[in-house]
Amino acid sequence: MSLDVSDALLARATSGDVTDDEFVACVRDSLPYAWQVISGVAADLSGDFAEHATPPPSEAERGQLLRALASDAIRGGLERHFGVTLAFQNCHRVAAFRPSAVDSDRYRTFVSPRGQLLNQSPELRDC
Known about the structure:
Helix content is 53%, strand content 11%. The protein contains seven helices and three strands. It has a three-stranded antiparallel sheet. The longest helix is centred in the first third of the chain and has 12 residues, at 32-43.
């Protein structure tokens, strides 16, 4: 399971909507490594761009990051919470952009097929 959902939160979700704050708290508590990486790039955003490019220390942490960024709901909740647009390459390279920078050359380069290809290396083949 991707998230550790409390019985109380599950009951609220079953009977209706939950707030972004409740959802993001569940993500924070369930995926602490992913939270650390994403909150870090959001905090480092001094211009229009910040990135984290350090491979996770274990497969468990890598899995957290993949779950956080592969889920539309989780990724969207994190983007709304931190006020950023996230971009992701490989299994660990996470970038945060100001939403106003999504039309920038740097963003387009980061998310381009060329950018993905240039970010490959043999040691990341099975990440």
